[in-house]
Amino acid sequence: MNRKEKIALIFAFAFFFFAVFAHASDRATRQITMLSSTAVTASSAATSSYLIDDYTEGTIYIDVTAESGVSTLDVQVQSSPDNSEWYTFDESEKVETDNFVTSDKIVETGNYVINISNIGKYIRCYYTVTGTSMTFSINSVFKN
């Protein structure tokens, strides 16, 4: 292999390394505990709001650890441009468990996921428990 071929090979390797590894490390993430695990009796409430304007997509993790009586949980992801007027994501009407989409009502213990994209400046979750009570937490990871 001559000198020009060696230099070309070094540049090709450097370009490949940068394209594969540098991009992955440049992608920032932010983890947020939106609601610590708590038992919620029949009611509706919103989590705190969070400024996430540096991020473009996210995953909401709902971990239901207990269900009392015949209860349901509905979690809607909401976005706001100004932290006062809130809009509900259409895709938050469905949750996934074990890669299957369920109805918007969670009726049993388990781990559920809501994926969102094209999120706005602020984010929060609005939840409603009907029936007796549900014990659950809401965590999230946002990526740019």
Task: Provide key terms for this protein.
alpha+beta, single chain, two-stranded antiparallel ribbon, Jelly Rolls, 144 residues, 55% strand, 1 helix
Care to describe what's here?
This protein is of the alpha+beta class. It has one helix and nine strands, in the order H-E-E-E-E-E-E-E-E-E.
What is this structure's SSE topology?
Layout: H1 3-26, E1 29-46, E2 50-51, E3 57-68, E4 72-80, E5 87-88, E6 95-97, E7 100-102, E8 110-117, E9 122-143
Antiparallel strand pairs: 1-9, 2-9, 3-8, 3-9, 4-5, 4-9, 6-7
The helix content is 10-25%
Structural class: alpha+beta
The rounded distance between the terminal residues' Cα atoms is: 42 Å
CATH architecture: Sandwich
Strand content: over 45%
List the secondary-structure elements in sequence, H or E. Answer: HEEEEEEEEE
The CATH top-level class label: Mainly Beta
Number of domains: 1
Would you identify the regions where 5 or more consecutive residues have pLDDT less than 50? Answer: 99-103
Number of helices: 1
Mean pLDDT: 83
How many strands appear in the DSSP assignment?
9
| CATH fold assignment | Jelly Rolls
Shape: elongated
Major β-sheet annotation: 7 strands, antiparallel
Q: Give the C-alpha Rg.
A: 21 Å
Report a brief summary of the structure.
The protein is 17% helix and 55% strand. With 144 residues, it is of the alpha+beta class.
